[in-house]
Amino acid sequence: MDEDTLIKQKEKSWRRYDSLLAKLNTPRKKKLSGELITEFCRLHREVCSDLSCAVSAQRSEGVIRYLHTLVGRGHAQLYRFEKVRIWGMRQILREMSARLYYDNCFRLALVIFYGSFAVSMLLGALGDNFCAALIGEDATLQLEKIYSYSAAQRSAEQNVQMSGYYIQHNTSLALQCFASGIFLGLGSIYCLLFNGVVLGAAFGHMLSGPYNDNFLAFVLSHGPFELTGIAVAGGAGLKLGYSIVRTNGLTRLASLRKAAHDSVPLVVTTAALICSAAIIEGFWSPLDLPLFYKAAMGALCTLILFVFIVVLGRKYGEPRSIQSPRP
Amino acid sequence: MRSLSTQLDTTCELVTPENVKFEYRLAGPMLRSFAYAIDFLVKALILVLLAVALKPFGEVGVGFFLVSMFVIEWLYFVAFETFMNGQSIGKRACSLRVINVNGTPLSSQQSIIRNLLRPADQFPALYATGVMFMIFTRRYQRLGDLAANTMVVIEQRITSPSLSAVDVKATEAVHALLPRRIALDSSLKKTVQLYAEKRNKLPRALLVELVQPAVGMLEAQLELPTGIDIDALMCALYRHIYIGNRNIPISDLNTTHA
Questions:
Q1: How many CA atoms lie within 13 A of B171 on its CB side?
Q2: B159 lies in a domain?
Q3: Among chain A residues, CA nearest to B184
Q4: Is A162 in the B-facing interface, judged by CB distances under 8 Å?
Q5: What is the extent of the structural domain holding B143?
Q6: Do B250 and B174 fall into the same domain?
Q7: Considering its fold, how many domains does chain B have in total?
Q8: Fewest beta carbons less than 10 Å away: which of A15, A77, B43, B86?
């Protein structure tokens, strides 16, 4: 059979298939009737077999390419097995808390971040020029100026604005900290160290300075969520990088894929922590309350984190997908 | 092992559950950056419209603007790729689609992974890392694609199959010389076909030089006299094998099927 006859013979069903594909590529595919879908499936099988016949009979390039695109488009429509997992509350707690508690990378991230934070805070408090040397004279003066008056003088509108700013700025920063971990974890380590040292220096400088009351009243409440959020992101990033080094018998690429898949809940946790911190920072922290209430809020946040990570994590036990097979 | 042709042709072969092999054409850095530019403009447009809409609300408006900036920055691609089956607005405009490397549509989880890792691909600037990885991986995958196990393919919609145009008049003389039944072996048949396909795309002299070694074999197999014009011979053979013995003008053929 020559090409012309073949095209004449098959063209009708190819065209029909093409038009059904165009219909299926709209978001309103639920409105397609069962008959149309059955017809589509039948035509898909027909076009598939036409393609293999055309290839083995060495049909002309134009016909084969045409059939390739038809099958490709049909394949993308027919095989969709997206299952959107809507986790129950219990499962979210189980997934995330146990993953965090038993994750060595998260532990390392906590040590790096809070360790550098503590050292830098000490240096910032003891040495007068440490903070200025680190973040610059101007930034230090700016910092002092911000906390020279109580944040309670802010208006409600300003609170909304600052809250939005914290959500946008801090969460983006944490997500970047996670993403850069793919470079063998180096990006995450840099990010954790940088933020730990700079924040620590600022904390040390302010706490040893004249405006320590204002400063403490402002940062005490949202600090736990915000700082731990960054550590969680860094930990997830480290995990991503470490998966390339230690593969547990998988190929490096497969190991990376598995780690990336496992890290999605961690990133969601990070975003949730930092967004909550931003809302606290925007609305609660500027309130003109005695220091006791601010400290209580900070303690409550710390308690929530402790219960979430340690108590629930231990209760649910080591998650299977994290366990590494011992050689 | 990949054959040489798949390396050169930037296609990716898949086997469907129907047990049929088919190819996707992979999208390279250039096409993907066009799609990205369109998406970038769409995002910028949304933000400008939001800025105008939120202006009357003063500081509250600024707060909401910043939150939506964050949401658009991180969720624009995830939302579109999830609900439009692997296409964002820019990808749709350039007829690209993100799919799983096994050819199935991507899941929302994969979309989250490949878009969360964008900052790593953007490092240090202008997607330098991403482009590097695209150049050195076989499916043009950037880091996010590698981690999510996805690839970006070109999804063409060809409206009808077409045959290569051959000048009928010029082939008449040679056509008369050909035997009624022609059984060429597959590599010679492929040569004829590729010649006809590339005839109007490459310089004629270069093509003739390329098929020169095959001509001797053709002449021997078909018992033709030597010294036939190579171009006319190839066209006549193409016409004989694919279009049949009937004298249909090729221009007609294209219009009937367009």
A1: 23
A2: no
A3: A58
A4: yes
A5: 4-154
A6: yes
A7: 2
A8: A15
